[in-house]
């Protein structure tokens, strides 16, 4: 769907140029030794014991809960690499929250390499590094089971043959390899026994039926069910969720192919998405939580009627999903409130504006019944990074928390799973200008205007700067 960067950030195995005839001969021998007869690809850097437990898992006591709270997703660049002191700053910041911060890592791409470049031969080096960081930051690890090794989708096998193009990464496994992918999922579960939560696939990538002009929900559901059963066979207490559909919406004036039920000033839902969701929901082997993904703006990047009120889409979608699933815990694996450019960059807003609209989005998801959500961290290596959670750990003075991290951390601390939200009194003339969410202890207030205001909320009168996010105690 192209709503976020797909780059893996992994180092592809390459035979480096060597000087001298002797060195070249040594390299040739290494290549031959690391190639299995008939498998069509190098096994360099791989191992046959992928399910061997990695490191020292910090398995939490008691049973896993199907809701984990509010956190973020590791992407191509994250805090597992860089200057030691900078990495340590991020790790300490996350560990000092007084609660485990949920953190998603994909099994292939977005910082992890090809997990099974040759059938039965594994390379979890990138995944191991990310898991080590999550453990070191006392986080709750969540694994998204996406994407698939090349040989499962018509490509070549081999540690030196991984195709990292967007087209390849967004290709689903061939049907004859669904079982192979389920086995890979089980291998991941055995390697990281402290991972109690797995999301099956990402955004229906590769599951589009061009002939019928709709999602291949039959194929995805068959795939999901095999993975679900494989994970439960490893450990019945593992929590599994899907379908991770992008909840696309269109202009509210559009009448063709749209939902008559899920609509608002923000737009109308694409009926094909809802049909896909309903099929999965009715035919799934089981689910411990339900996962969706989406933006507050339409497929044409329209924020209707404005960027703050557009976030009400998250509430409407959440309520619809909860009705359909019998109140399964609802997760937003990704959520977007600011349209990106052709390269998926979001640099047009000030950071204060960005944080304010993100806060509005979090409020809307919570009102819709969500108990877990993950901010897609757009981390980069340089000094400038709009919306990043921390300054780049590639810099000696990096690893400093940024405003977006403060929002995600505070929201997760104040409004975790089990929160009972309460109504709040807002002065009549302030209602159009502020967004508010509260429980019995805390009130979150957002100024939706780019100017200073004086607001009266919950009986308290106070000034707010433009786009300010304010936390009040009751």
Would you count the extended β strands for me? 18
How would you spell out the order of helices and strands? Answer: HEHEHEHHEEEHEEEEHEHEHEHEEEEE
Low-confidence stretches: 1-38
Shape: globular
Enumerate how many helices there are, as a single number. Answer: 10
Q: What percent of residues adopt helix (DSSP H or I)?
A: 25-40%
Describe this structure in words.
The protein is α/β, with parallel strands linked by helices. Helix content is 27%, strand content 19%. The protein contains ten helices and 18 strands. The chain has helices at 21-33, 84-95, 125-136, 166-169, 178-191, 217-234, 271-283, 312-325, 351-367, 403-414, and strands at residues 70-73, 102-106, 140-145, 197-200, 208-209, 214-215, 239-246, 249-250, 258-264, 267-270, 289-295, 330-336, 370-376, 434-438, 442-447, 453-457, 460-464, 469-473. An eight-stranded parallel beta barrel has the order 1-2-3-4-7-11-12-13, surrounded by six helices. It has a three-stranded antiparallel beta sheet with strand order 8-10-9. β11 (289-295), α8 and β12 form a beta-alpha-beta unit. The radius of gyration is 23 Å and the shape is globular. The chain starts with 20 loop residues before the first helix and ends with a strand.
